[in-house]
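Worked example 2:
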Amino acid sequence: MESATGAVIGCSRFYDYQPERCCVNIGYTFYGSAYWGSGYNPQAKALMLDYAFQFVATVEFHVGAGNKRSQIAMERLGAVKVAERPVTYHGELESLNFIYQLHTAVAKG
């Protein structure tokens, strides 16, 4: 939420907690285009990573193969592409996702 106006600028969430792997995913992230490049996304991700790494050793991100903007953002965080996986979201055709991982010792804030 933008403090000056109270406008919702976007969101992100934790999902797919896997205690046996000591891992959680962060994703389903979107920001209105007016806020792209504004610095909100790295700030939000840093807060989420700081929180997650209190409880897990690994955070994963699923990024669409065609989403270059998010791939660059993952690399800036220090995340490493570890796999590719086809996924089918509700009501959509199958598409390719890249899986990025970030481990506690690598996390950048």
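The beta strands are 10-18, 23-31, 58-64, 80-87, 95-103. The chain has a mean pLDDT of 88.
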